[in-house]
Amino acid sequence: MEARARGSMSSSIGNSAELESNLTLGDRLKVFKVSTFDPEAYVTSKCQHMNEKETRHLTSYLVELKKASAEEMRKSVYANYAAFIRTSKEISALEGQLLSMRNLLSAQAALVHGLADGVHISSLCADDADDLRDEDLYDMDNKQLSKIEIWVVEFFDRLEVLLAEKRVEESMAALEEGRRVAIEAQEKRTLSHSTLLSLNNEIKEKRQELADQLAEAIGQPSTRAGELRSAVLSLKKLGDGSRAHTLLLRSYERRLQANIQSLRASNTSYGVAFAAALSQLVFSTIAQAASDSQAVVGEDPAYSSELVTWAVKQAESFALLLKRHTLASSAAAGSLRVTAECIQLCASHCSSLESRGLALSPVLLKHFRPGVEQALTGNLKRIEQSSAALAASDDWSLSYTPTGSRASSTTLVAPHLKLSISAQRFNSMVQEFLEDAGPLDEALQLDGVALDGVLQVFNSYVDLLINALPGSAENEENPVHRIVKVAETESQQTALLVNALLLADELIPRSASRILPQGTNQSTPRRGVSSDRQNRPEQREWKRKLQRSVDRLRDSFCRQHALELIFTEEGEVRLSSEIYILMDETTEEPEWFPSPIFQELFAKLTRIATIASDMFVGRERFATILLMRLTETVILWISDDQSFWEEMETGDKPLGPLGLQQFYLDMEFVMIFASQGRYLSRNLHQVIKNIIARAIEAVSATGLDPNTTLPEEEWFAEVAQIAIKMLSGKASFGGHGDRDVTSPSASSAKSYTSN
């Protein structure tokens, strides 16, 4: 039984080895290709001895074969798609010709049957009286027909001569006259059927001959524009408007290709001049073709669609040619100005066709945009590399922008601003980039690609400035950013901030004004920019991003200077709780004065304030915020340092009354000099109050009452004022100077627990 089932399976699909083998599709289908193949007999022979399992196996095999066949058919169609399309068009044309031939044969058959019926009816008229009358009528008609037949003969000869001499207007008039005579003869029966048929056939043949002459004239390159329009119009009058319109567009296409070949042969380089000449040639030809098309066929939608398709094809060919010969090389070389000028010329010529209903800008955008983006990327990369090279040798000294450069010759230059060498060059490169990218952004509607690129290179330049700070370790993975000359002095480091601030706050936005919308109050929006782009939030966000990059540099500056105060060069902490805890281990009364680290903080802030007042002229607010952030950075470090507070609150040696008084004095000192310098923020004031209260609570936790040890608040303020004057070199001890403010009386204690 098992053997029979195996044999049945073998007979159903050949055998199981055949099913699993790697036979080609052709080998599997051979059995179906023979001319004697009988499907019913095949299925019967294969399935009559099969059980259910074998039937399912055969079904899956046939499904697999069907899928493989469909895949093979799909590959065959794709491989021969062009030939398939060409064959389909030829079949369509052949079907049209066969249809015309069938109509012609039908007309000829009807005419033959009509003539036969007429002869049969005439033979039935044998009455003598009628014969006499018919003979008289025949004689009269014979004389009239003879005259018409003479005209027909003369007409044939005259029409032959007119066509031979290619006298188009006269030939068309003669054909029209012949058509009228044929209609009149048919209505009045003044011509025999054979003569009328001969006349109609002659008119049809000569009309076709004239149409062929006109088509040949249209296709001749030597045919002038006026003659071309006249020939196309004549062909349309002959009733072949579709052919006339197609031949018109083909003629312009051949002339355009010939002119392009001549232009390429006469140009040794493919720069802006070649692009301008080529653009003028292509779009003027399209405009002339559109004008002639409208003059010949009017506003017919069918012809308008053909014109648009033809114009799109020419625009695509032009875009590919310009891209291959001009834009590709310019983009590869990063020559954004050449790319911008070429595309601006093309956009100008293209816009002139919009009044004719030909919007070809999307065609150009599709082909030009990748090359433009490549050119933009190349320019931005060049700006980054040049800025990095200049930053490697910049001494970070500020000077006025020199005149004579391309950028300084524009109205965007601010000669009153001082920048370092690398910032001056960065600014000029960005200006040049935006000058060239402006027309591209307008023509190609890049939607802020250029502005985003400027933001990118500015962030890279800010990274360079951050790495110029001493000890900066940011972006060490990028080798470009590691080769930067370090700003050693505080003046040089402040100059880094000046570079970033002036670029982000004034120079770059002013350069970008040629791309940024000018606000909603402008009377005429820029062409190609919709009103919803005017003053949109994205532009304001772009400017805020520039400012955030400056804030990043400022925070790095503050962090770097705070770390210099808090840590030694060996990495040890200078601002620790020990300086306050150890004060209570001495038996002598300390000389009350701010701690050395806060004296250094005051000196540093004073120096930076002096430097900033000279460098940030007109931008005092930024200088104030800089001093405020630097002070906050130091104080916030104290507030957030867990080890500092753990030692003071829960350490083996907790904070005592003398250490609390010194800590209070240091904090009061910071508040007073920050307030006098006008950079005491509300946040800083609150943080200082909070950490003073925390220190008081730490002392209270030891069982001591701070109210019995701390002097009045006025004492701290007075000592801080004296320290500020002494450190500033303005100390004067006349009047109240004899009072020993450094020896507070315990009787003047005041409760600070409410703070």
From TrEMBL:
GO cellular component entries: exocyst
Biological processes annotated in GO: exocytosis; Golgi to plasma membrane transport; intracellular protein localization
Stretches assigned to the Exocyst component Exo84 C-terminal domain: 151-360
Pfam families the record matches: Exo84_C (PF16528), VPS51_Exo84_N (PF08700)
Residue span of region Disordered: 514-542, 734-755
Stretches with biased composition (Basic and acidic residues): 529-541
Keyword Transcription regulation in annotation: no
Annotated keywords: Exocytosis, Transport
InterPro entries, per the entry: Cullin_repeat-like_dom_sf (IPR016159), Exo84 (IPR033961), Exo84_C (IPR032403), Exo84_C_1 (IPR042561), Exo84_C_2 (IPR042560)
Biased composition (Low complexity): 742-755
Keyword Cell membrane annotated: no
Family to which the UniProt record says this protein belongs: Belongs to the EXO84 family.
Name the UniProt record assigns to this protein: Exocyst component Exo84 C-terminal domain-containing protein
Native source organism of the sequence: Thlaspi arvense (Field penny-cress)
